Amino acid sequence: MRLTKMMVLLILMAFAATPAVAKIKVVGKGDKMNFDASQIPSDLKGAYEIMKVKCIQCHTMERTVIAIQTGIAPVTGQPFDKQATKAYGIKMLRKPKSNMSRDEVKQVVNLMNYLIDESAKP
Ligand code: HEC
To answer: Under a CB-based contact definition with an 8 Å cutoff, are residues 36 and 84 in contact?
Structure first.
């Protein structure tokens, strides 16, 4: 029992510590969490703005941030890597009332791939 509690605590601590390790800083907590806009390169700013508006219609950005930082999709527990981003994008696009275009999703997928690369840097 005590060991289980200890492990839960360690996992929580690892999550809390992640933003400091990732190259692109994360600002805000909980519902307000997002990647730091000032660190997004100019050619991806457009995609960042799309993500900021379109990807918080059904859930907050925290879900996407955690997926990118940990490499694990937080709801299903499936891998969230560069091989998977496109499929997740399409999955989101196909949800009822997703209010996104194919091109918008494509741009966000491109941005997520960049963020995954950056998160992997020491
Ligand atoms: C129309 C509603 C809707 C929109 C818009 C939406 N999502 Fe989601 N998202 C969901 C639902 C519902 C889930 C719960 C898991 C599932 O059904 O796949 C989810 C889950 C997720 C997950 C976790 C997936 C998992 O398997 O754990 C990520 C990451 C995610 N969304 C990212 C995004 C991104 C990035 C965008 C913008 C391109 C976006 N979402 C837009 C509804 C939406």
So the answer is: no
pTM assigned to the model: 0.86
Centre of ligand 1 from the C-alpha of residue 1, in Å: 34
Which residue's CA is the closest to the ligand 1 atom numbered 20? 75
Give the pair of three-digit tokens for residue 15: 């999550």
pLDDT tens for the chain, 122 residues: list them.
576 777 776 666 666 655 444 478 999 999 999 999 999 999 999 999 999 999 999 999 999 999 999 999 999 999 999 999 999 999 999 999 999 999 999 999 999 999 999 998 87
Work out the widest C-alpha separation in the chain, in whole angstroms: 50
Spatial CA neighbour of 102 closest among 8, 117, 81, 94: 94
Ligand 1 atom closest to the CA of 72, numbered from 1: 27
Q: State the distance from the centre of ligand 1 to the C-alpha of 69, rounded, in angstroms.
A: 16
- What residue ranges define each of the domains in the chain, with the CATH number in brackets? 2-120 (1.10.760.10)
